[in-house]
Amino acid sequence: MTKLIISAIGPASSVQDGGRFGAQRYGLTPSGAMDHLGLAAANCLVGNTLFAAAVEIGPFGATFSAREGSVRIALAGAPRKAEIDGRAVAWNASATLGDGDVLKLEMAREGCFSYLAIEGGIAGEMMFGSLAVNARAGLGSPYPRPLQAADELQVAAASAAAECRIDLKPAAAGPIRVVLGPQDDEFGEQDMKLFLSSKWKISASSDRMGYRLEGPLIRHLHGHNIVSDGTVNGSIQVPGNGQPIVLMPDRGTTGGYPKIATVISADFGRFAQMPAGTSFQFKAVSMAQAQAEARKFAELLRALADRLLPIESFDLNIEALQDANVAGAAVNAVDAGTWQVPLPADALRQD
Amino acid sequence: MAAPISPPRLLPSGDSAVMVEFSRHIDQAANRRVLALDRAIAQEPIHGVTETVPTYRSLLVHYDPTLIDFDSLGERLLHLAQRPILRSQRARRWRVPVAYGGEHGIDLADVAETLGITPDEVVARHIAGDYCVAMIGFTPGWSYLSGLQKSLHISRRKDPRLLTPAGTISIGGVQAGIQCLAGPSGWHLLGRTPVRTYQLHRDPIFLLEPGDRVTFYVIDAGTFGKLDRAAEHGEMVAELIAA
Predict the structure, then answer these.
(1) Contacts of B88 (CB under 8 A, 6+ apart)
(2) I want to staple A184 with a disulfide (CB 3.0 to 4.6 A). Which of A169, A180, A225, B36 is the partner?
(3) How many Cβ atoms sit within 10 Å of the Cβ of residue B90?
(4) What is the ipTM, given to two decimal places?
């Protein structure tokens, strides 16, 4: 069987998919990709279902190679320099690793988590409908732990499908939007103002369970203990030290600190991609706005395939495509000198 | 005459979940209403609801906002929460073996001293309890039990332990617990059970459900070892005495 060998990989890298749902009532957290758009884009490029299992690669570099056949892959999420046997390959695009070819990824140039999807997915044993790694619960397949050098993923042999790229608008900048609550009434007016108007910095001691924030002290009205209740991805809990923690996909399913607000689902992936040290602000939005954004995000995912473009017929300027991702703007793939605003997907499909 | 039922509070938990809060405190009456609402949703699924997480005092309802919005779901949940609780609902009943004290329960002697009773009396009171699984959370299979008798209420440890063994049977505050995986805990360790409330490759993977009833019985260290090996090989080792 064809294999993708992990020759080198940094920490915080694991097999992830859309997550493991239905067992939060038993204390089993969903896990799953930190950035669903990155995961979905990578899968879409190789014709997989959007939330199929892929390799989530942490901020550091990684090296892979194909064995016993060629492997069609796609790269999306946090952009980085990528080469196959010394040839540059484009980000947000598919590529094929011939038998024995080496794919080398540098550190993320912006963001944290990149996604390497493999055509046909990754072979493994599903638990609660998911291969996602949850190391604490001993779950995840083929390895119930983060990936290490010399690990092997069983994959399908590459098809003859044409390579393609995906035209993604750069992630919107701006504040991370939240819906207040469920325990915003545990905080006074002044502390709520402080929470919403301050610059927060993502602490270095952040991981897939939670991102710790550094900033002004947020005080509780009635102490920092509440009777535990359920949590979600993006719950912002404020423990006794007054420094908020945003709960991430490996969170505990219940928690006993007051939750001042919740990151809206449409902004969660963008938040998850912020590296330690990033400064940002929160902005409160209404439930109606948050749900409208959630529907827009779902529509973006649903229509991802409409953004696929063939790349085989172009004489690709790969460096330009890579730079385009870094600069956060689209560039004409044929002429690196032409910078332009991205065209809407349907305009590109007219010809 | 039935007491009037006050409606729960609906608290937004982002755009894809809503907290149905019946109380701010650990409250058995509230927990019964939480579990009743949980059952009602299981019996009459609401389109768009993806899963529910019952706790002592609230039910977290996860949903897909592209299928149902906050207002429509909230209205439906408030309606279901107003239904009277059926007392006739038969709970499953488990008997769970525990090796108390010694290396299995390193805090038993301290708890006895704090409460001014003998270790045997702590054990006698702990096994006399008829517990209800109020919630499962924190880590897989960690079962929080209501029904700890008042004389065993004891404040949590000042310095929580970073690692306590798998299968720990402990008490903390007004709660009793069955811990499945090794992990941190600030509670007092009375004993250990060979029962795995969470075990992969066993059917069922999760033994206990919120709402199940639990009683404990004493086993010696030798029996613990024997049952622990059986449990490791996928046996339940807890007795299901009524379903």
Answers:
(1) none
(2) A180
(3) 8
(4) 0.93
Domain span at B45: 9-81
* Closest-CA residue to A137 (of A36, A251, A293, A11): A251
Q: Which ranges in chain A are annotated with CATH 2.40.100.10?
A: 176-299
| Chain B residue whose CA is closest to A252 | B138
Do you find a cis peptide bond into A142, omega within 30 degrees of 0? yes
Measured between beta carbons, which residues in chain B are less than 8 angstroms from residue A186? none
Q: Are residues B98 and B75 in the same domain?
A: no
CA Rg, chain A, in Å?
21
The answer to whether residue B174 is domain-embedded is yes
Do strands B49-54 and B188-192 pair parallel, antiparallel, or not at all (unpaired)? Answer: unpaired
Domain boundary among B31, B53, B81: B81
Res. A170 pLDDT band, cuts 50 70 90: confident
Please spell the DSSP secondary structure of chain B, one letter per residue.
Answer: -PPPPPPPEEEEBTBSEEEEES-SS--HHHHHHHHHHHHHHHHSPPTTEEEEEE-SSEEEEEE-TTTS-HHHHHHHHHHHHTSPPPTTPPPPEEEEEEEESGGG-TTHHHHHHHHTS-HHHHHHHHHH--EEEEEE-SSTT-EEEE---GGG-BPPPSS-EEEE-TTEEEEEBTEEEE--S-EEE-SEEEEE-S--SB-TTSSSSB---TT-EEEEEE--HHHHHHHHHHHHTT---SEEEE-
In which residue are the tokens 């009777």 written?
A227
The total number of structural domains that make up chain B: 2
pLDDT tens, per residue, chain B with 243 residues: 445 568 999 999 999 999 999 999 998 899 999 999 999 999 999 999 999 999 999 999 999 999 999 999 999 999 999 988 876 567 899 999 999 999 999 999 999 999 999 999 999 999 999 999 999 998 899 999 999 999 999 988 878 898 999 999 999 999 999 999 998 888 999 999 999 999 998 999 999 999 999 999 999 999 999 999 999 999 999 999 866
Instruction: Indicate the residue among B54, B81, B108 that finishes a domain.
Output: B81
The domain that contains B32 carries what CATH number? 3.30.1360.40
CATH class name, domain A176-299: mainly beta
Task: Give the one of B12, B56, B138 whose C-beta lies nearest to A227's C-beta.
Answer: B56
Q: Is residue B4 included in any domain, yes or no?
A: no
Q: How many CB pairs under 8 A join A and B?
A: 140
Contact B139 A27 (CB under 8 A): yes
Are A287 and A281 a contacting pair, CB within 8 Å?
no
Q: Is A295's CB within 8 Å of B65's CB?
A: yes
